[in-house]
Amino acid sequence: MLGLIFPTGHDRRLIPQARLTGPMPWVMAIMLFLTMLATAAALALGSAGQQINADLAGRATVQIVNADAQARQTQAVAAEAVLRSDRAVAAVTQVSETEVRDLLAPWLGSGAVSDDIPLPALIDVDFRTRADAAALARLRGALSRAAPDARIDAHGQWLRPVFDLIATLRWLAVGLVALLVLASMASVMLSARSSFAAHSETIDIMHLLGSTHAQIARLFQRRIALDAALGALFGCLLAAPVLWMLGQAAGRLDSGLVSAGSFGLVDWLLLATVPIAGIALAVITARITVLSALRKKL
Amino acid sequence: MDSIVQFENVGLRYGTGPEVLSNLSFTLFSGQFYFLTGPSGAGKSSLLKLLYLAQRPSRGLVRLFDSDLMTLGQDRLPGFRRRIGVVFQDFRLVPHLSAFDNIALPLRIAGMRDADIITPVREILDWVGLTARGDALPATLSGGEQQRVAIARAVITRPDILVADEPTGNVDPDMAVKLLRLFEALNRMGTTIIVATHDVHLMTRIKRAQMMRLEAGQLSDPTGALRYPPRPADLTGWAGEQS
Ligand SMILES: Nc1ncnc2c1ncn2[C@@H]1O[C@H](COP(=O)(O)OP(=O)(O)OP(=O)(O)O)[C@@H](O)[C@H]1O
Ligand SMILES: [Mg+2]
After folding, report:
1. Contact call for B109 and A208, based on CB within 8 A
2. If I label B31, which of A1, A46, B226, B242 is the partner at 20 to 30 A Cα–Cα?
3. Where does residue A297 rank: exposed (0-12), middle (13-18), buried (19+ CB within 10 A)?
4. Measured between alpha carbons, how far is B113 from A37 in angstroms, rounded to an integer?
5. How large is the angle between the packed helices A265-294 and A155-198, nearest 10 degrees?
């Protein structure tokens, strides 16, 4: 297996190269480092979006604002019945008056929240899935008939801009990964071409002695694979502490957006495939470049 | 006798330039020994390039090993090239490989294992008198030594055809005769030999050899009949060209 990638002693002599003096491993290291960061960002933003979605978008609050406590109570019971009977709703919880009082205390001051001030009745609603516009409209209609003073606030609706921002950032990260892949391929192509030109004499001789195109391409593939592997190693060594530090910083934020916990096993595995995919991509690009250059020969 | 090379009305031009070879028609037979001669610039190297598949003819038909070169797929060319040993006029040694590794190159290309390579390469190094110079890089070898490495590389695989372009141009007469013996030995084992040379005396050394003469891209005898053996009269006609 290693023999497929790494040059034998004779191949090294045939297409000699001063190790690590060329720019190739360093370019690969930088590209891989940036690709891993961008991939991590895309994954983190993806899981952050999902988490917010799960936490908030599947919920709504129904408020019943009526100064008359009796009417409020009747409407609350009616509203609860309406909500329970809807197929989109998973759970309905009446928020008790003491809880509402506790919620308001920081804003109004505990003294001010007295029996004199009418408090709204609050009902928490959990949807089975993310509440869509149709379900909300249906609920709104049913509620207005059963409880005229009820107002439903879907959390997902006021979180819409946050969702949109996260989605945009995520696409940006994905786009960045794509651009980095293209740039890496371009640099591998340049490197393969210049190395091909530098060894054109040797290649001509091998060609006339009966080397197949695949044999010649393999020499360059192996060299590029070695360069790419070194680059990948450096890139990983650079990226690992940076990703770890970012994870720590996000953990301290405790926002739940990019906490380390949101990086699952699958995400780590995906990140680990970045350097491997990088090496494979470099080898394939080098092969295609060299083969297309050889095709011009007889 | 089987024909191994057939030319019919072959012409060759480089790019858009004039034809450097025109109307070549001849047949070479398996197991024979041929000399190709003619003045400098007559097109000898160009004709050999067609033989060792470095060029395709611009027109006409070239058949090699009973295959038409025009229609031969690119993927089959390496297999054909491995059956042809070439001594290039400018040697074409790989500059950063030792004499040993240069000679071993065709065997490695053919996929032979390192362990099986050492003995034949040592043998042939001995034949060309370079046993002590196996580790030397081409740049540190004399012109004659480089030429002998080039010859050793061409014969190491015991090819079906050996094409040699001025293979004795840089060696002393004794070494030239010795190298010719090597070609003769190879010829006796069945290899068809084609040697381009200006050296008249060399040609008279091989009694069985036939000769082709090129002048300005055309065969001196346009019927393609080859002189066998070269008549002294033929030789004296252009002995003055020797450099
Ligand atoms: N690659 C090339 N491109 C253009 N013209 C070429 C090329 N190679 C050879 N020629 C021309 O083709 C003609 C024949 O050249 P060639 O090398 O075949 O002669 P030759 O008989 O081998 O001469 P010499 O005895 O000096 O080696 C010459 O006029 C030469 O200038
Ligand atoms: Mg010549």
Report:
1. no
2. B242
3. middle
4. 45
5. 30
Nearest ligand to the CA of B40 is 1
**What's the pLDDT tens digit per position in A108-156?**
766 665 666 777 888 888 887 766 777 778 888 888 888 888 888 877 7
Q: Where are the domains of chain B?
A: 1-75+160-165+191-243
Q: Is A210 on the interface with B (CB under 8 A)?
A: yes
Closest chain B CA to residue A201: B94
Q: What tokens does A171 get?
A: 């696409």
Domain encompassing residue A143 = 66-148
Closest C-alpha among B48, B53, B1, B61 to residue B20: B48
Q: What pTM, to 2 d.p., does this model score?
A: 0.74
Question: What percent of chain A clears pLDDT 90, i.e. is strictly above it?
Answer: 14
Contact state of A208 with B86 under an 8 Å Cβ cutoff: yes
Q: Which residue did the predictor score with more confidence, A100 or A228?
A: A228
The CATH superfamily assigned to B1-75+160-165+191-243 is: P-loop containing nucleotide triphosphate hydrolases (3.40.50.300)
Q: Which residues of chain B have pLDDT under 50?
A: 237-243
Pick the residue whose CA is nearest to atom 6 on ligand 1. Answer: B14
A204 shares contact with chain B (CB less than 8 Å): yes
